[in-house]
Structures are given as structure tokens and as C-alpha cells.
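User: Please run a holo structure prediction.
Assistant: Happy to. Please share the sequence and the ligand.
User: Here you go; the ligand is 6R9.
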Amino acid sequence: LPDQDFSQQAHIPSFQKVILSPSFSLSTDSSTLYRFQYQEMYKRSIEDPSGFWSDMASEFYWKKKWDHQVCSENLDIRKGNINIEVGNHISFIHMQHYRIHNQLMGFSQWFKGGVTNICYNCLDRNIESGNGEKIAIHWEGNEPGVDDSLTYNQLLDRVCQLANYLKQNGVKKGDSVIIYLPMLMELPISMLACARIGAVHSVVFAGFSAESLEQRIIDCKPKIVITCNAVKRGSKIINLKDIVDSALSESSQNGVCVGLCLTSANESAMKREATKWIKERDVWWQDDVPKYSTKCDVEWVDGEDPLFLLYTSGSTGKPKGVLHTTAGYMIYTAATFKYAFDYKQSDIYWCTADCGWITGHSYVAYGPLLNGATVVVYEGVPNYPDPGRCWDIVDKYKVTIFYTAPTLVRSLMRDGDEYVTRYSRKSLRVLGSVGEPINPSAWRWFFNVVGDSRCPISDTWWQTETGGFMITPLPGAWPQKPGSATFPFFGVQPVIVDEKGKEMKGECSGYLCVKTSWPGAFRTLFGDHERYETTYFSAFPGYYFSGDGCRRDKDGYYWLTGRVDDVINVSGHRIGTAEVESALVSHPKCAEAAVVGVEHEVKGQCIYAFVTPVEGVAYSEDLKKSLVLSVRTNIGAFAAPDKIHWAPGLPKTRSGKIMRRILRKIASRQLDELGDTSTLADPNVVDQLIALADS
Ligand code: 6R9
């Protein structure tokens, strides 16, 4: 495990309570979940998980009920005498490795044998219960005044047309489809259409570069790529089709043949005629998809059939394909959404995340739609045309639940209260935060200014891997402490372990693990089950290891303190240091690079890169620019380093391991806290680095 000094965590806030009475902030029809009810339900969820989750699952439609066991699991090979045939029903062709083992570490299955479909449960089921004319999606375009909406009936029609189109074009159950779209309605439509026919979607955030997209295409070999010609974000136009063209031409050299690129014309960003076109391969969505029938039979799938793949950063250069399956994910996102936001049928819900990340999967698309909610989907950026846009949208749609990231809160806070207070915001009743620890001053501003001191904040801790919320307040159910994600969700047993893996009790700080499986847990890393076992289940045998540090206070509240591995959290986006390093090293003039995260006022953390140029190359501003460009083109603009620090050499141990602890101190200019540097192969490099700090 990497070195980690818990006392240095900037985010541990001073203790302060904000007492919320359970009733004042909740809607009048609320069946408020008081603390004792939580405790009762939590106790049951731990003592009788089968009964608890069966009850939750009974709200959904099952073509066939699951086998006798709700969950089978084995988080520890040492405990393993489970002998279960894994994955008979997994049709995903690349998953053979997952089938043969029968004593997998980290193995868990939920609702195995149950037959269902998540798209059916999101749409048809809600329509059958009388919600067909309810708005499913309010879409707000980048430009104020450009908007659209779809009822549940209309959404189902659109999803069915696309599902039929995909089937007609050869997409079958178990095939993968890459979706590279901005926040257009076509994005959730595409996800749902894949789910309807049992295809596995892999959404790639439209901020990723051609090279990142290509890497993902090569990894999961989609039959079809769905994109749009361009997107306008704020005043900037991004030509997505060019990026896709470049990714596809490269991946075809690597033996992947994507037969079809379905392109939605986003004419407010770019005219169709201006779009480059490859006749044999490209198809306009608007021309072809509407010709298909609005009725499409559901492909009934096993509860353990894969639903989607989502790539996320890890501590090596290669992104990890996190694989989620159907039923457990469905029940978990639905239940977490309902309880953590105290959801009511009358709510209007807006989550600012992009569907390219897990938050968009679970809490823009699946969780809310499973609950029959009305969701706001926003195409643009939060400060366009000015920093009041979010509150303009809140007032326009009468948003009641607003879920966002601390980085956005901090950036709007910097723009001043006036942009907020000029809007009413009186519809708001619950606020949410996700992506990184929320610092207490941002928390208070969010609570006092945005929420007028009346809306509780659900600070939800979870991960791509966990599928849904793991530690989160339930609004109004207990006193909040700014900066604490409070208590575990139903069925989740967090444990804090020391570096030897020993579970600690009571007040403590250490590594955050989870003891038993929960329905939303991912099942494997696509194509690399071994990496799944070693990354998550071998550091602390018997537990799932989150990669986060955590403190539990004397009242039992959990305080997340940030990543303890080589992952940086920039504006709530996970970026692996190794990925950025390999992008830098791919530059012909870069000999070596080491990247660390440094605290940043708005982004939470920013990327700080130490670079050694190849012999004979001089340090220059131009070289800095071209190194940053190399990261932009390899990964995407969001991963661009904020600072390049020239390094004649890097601090390494005698065995050649880079001492990032020292680099972090230099980067944050905590020069009197460098600690013992005598174990370095060459202690002089530290002085050289300090001397070059401002060059
Ligand atoms: C949902 C999401 C996961 C990492 C996670 C942690 C950080 C997320 C947090 C939080 C403190 C919260 N994180 N929510 N830290 N408090 N409420 O963001 O998934 O992109 O996979 O990132 O984000 O470090 O390990 P993902």
C-alpha cells in the first residue's frame, strides 16, 4: 500500500453539527424515515439480507422469480468452499474467463436465475401503473430557451425505435455498443435501448480524446458506435464526429471493425452539411431510426447478465472496464435513489452529472427512471451564459432535488451569492453532493445560500465499482455534520482497517473496506478478472477495498478523506497518475514523468507533473505547452496537468521506486515536511527540484 499520512488530510473538517429537525425540510406527504426507523431497517438489512432485498425487489417486474438464493458471495478465497457454477447465462462473448472459475475472490451474485429487464422496469412498468403521460425527461439545451421534453410514453417509443434499429443492424444480446454522446436525450435513450435488447452499453464520456475512445473500442469491440456530429458546451463547439472518425480509423488497424456509426445531428452545434461523412459506414439517426416501429419486444435477461461496462481509472495506465450486471444494480440504484433523496412522485429531480460517468448512469438514468421520476437533463455547462444558470434552471423546472459535485459548489461560491439569490429556488427541498469530500465551507454555502438553510444535504459516498450510494445521509433522519457522509446505506457494512488489514472499532482512521457484498456491486473487470481480485480483494483479505481513506468519529459518523492509491480526483473525475504519466512519456522529448495530486481551491485536486526531458533538450515554455497537449490528446482536456515542474531527476529509492510522498510535499510547497530523504538513491535530486520549483 502507498504511504499515507492521515493527519495531513486537508478535508477533515472541524467538528460541527447542523441539527435538522426531521420534519421541516421534507415534503408534507413524506413518510419521513426517522432515525429509529433507519436503525430498524438497517439492522434487518444486515441480519436478513435475503428478506430485505427480496422485499425491495418485489416492487419490480420479474418474468421469472430468482432462484432460492438472493445472494451468493465469496469475498475471501480463504473462506471459499462455495461451489457454484458461475455465469451459465452470461452471453457476453468475451467473458469466458468468468465462467470457468468456481471459487472466485470477490465473487458475488444477486437474484441469480431471476429473469427481468431494466428497461422494462424503467418504462413499461411505470406506464402500466398510469404514469405514461408523466414527463420522464426535461431536456435543457446549452442555449437558454432551447429545450424539449419526453413523457414516459414518448420515451418508450423513442427507445423502442432505436432498439429495433439496433437489432435490425445485427446487435444481439450480449453484444457491446459504445455510446459517445453529450447530454442529449439520445444518450439515455441509447442506454435504455441497449438494455431493452440485452446489449451491453459502454458510455464513453464525450470529453475523452480520440485515443482514449479508441482504447475502449479496441477493448470491448462494439458492433456499433453511437455519437453525434458536434456539441456546444458554453460558447465552445466540440466536433465529436471527427474524434470518432479518428478513433475508428485507428481501431480498424487493430483488427476491430465497427460496421456502423450512428450519428445524431445536433444542429444547434453544427449543421449536418458541415459534418464529414463516410458513406459506407455513417448513418444519420434522424433519417433512419424514426422509420422503425415504436413497439419492441423486451429481451428477458438473467439477473446476472451484464448490463453495462464503464471504464474508470486505476493505478496502472490501462483503464479498468467495470462490469455491472442487471438485477442487483437495478434494485440497488432504485432503492438508494428513493431513500437517500427521500424521493416523492411529485419531485422534479436534477443531477448535474454527465451520463459518461457512473453518477449519470445510476442517478441521471436508471435510479430515477426506475422510480418513475421526472429528470432534468442539461446539455451545457453550469456557468453559461453566466454563473446563475443552474438556479435559472431550478426555477424554470421547479426542481425539488438537486444533486451535484463539490467542485461545482466551490466554483459557484467563488462567483458570489448574488447569482444565486436573484433566483427564488423555493422549490428545492433536498440537495446532494458526490464525487469527492465536500469541504465544510462549501457545504455551509450550499446549505445556507443555495438551500436557504432549509434543505438537507445528502453527501453520498460511492464509486463506479459500487454501482450506488454506500455511505449517505437520509434526509432529515439524523443530525448532519458538514463534510461527513454520515452512515452506511441499508445492507452496507463498512469497516475501517489498519495497514495490516485489522478491523478497527470505534473512533479511528484507516482504510475503508466493505465486509459483505451489496446488490449494486460490480462483478468483474472486463477481460481481467485477476486484476479485479488483486486490486480490490487481495490488499485486505476478506474485504472489498475501496481505495479511500476514512475516519470514524466518536458518534460513528464516517468522514471520507480521499484516495490512498495513485488516483487523483480532479473536479470529481478520477484520473490515474499512471495514465497521465504514460501520456507525458509518449511525448518524444519526455524521458520520465511523475504525477501527483495537489490541493486546488475549486477542483479539489489538480494535476502536478514532474517531467525530465530527454538528454540535451532545454526547458522551455513551448515544451511545457506541447507536453500538456500530449495529455489532452491522449486522455482528454479534463486530465491536462495544471503545472509542469522540471525535474533533472526524480526522487527514487535504491530499488528504483519513485517516492511520491516527497513529490507531493514539494508540489504543495511543504518543504519543511519532506521527512527522511536519506533512503533516496540520490538525495541531491530533492534540492534540485526545490531550486526549480518556480521555473
Ligand atoms: C460516484 C463517483 C469514486 C471516488 C471515491 C472517492 C470519491 C465520491 C465521495 C467521494 C468523499 C463523497 N468520492 N463521492 N469522496 N465523499 N461523497 O464519484 O464515482 O468516479 O468512481 O469516483 O470518488 O475517492 O473512491 P467514481
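The mean pLDDT is 89.
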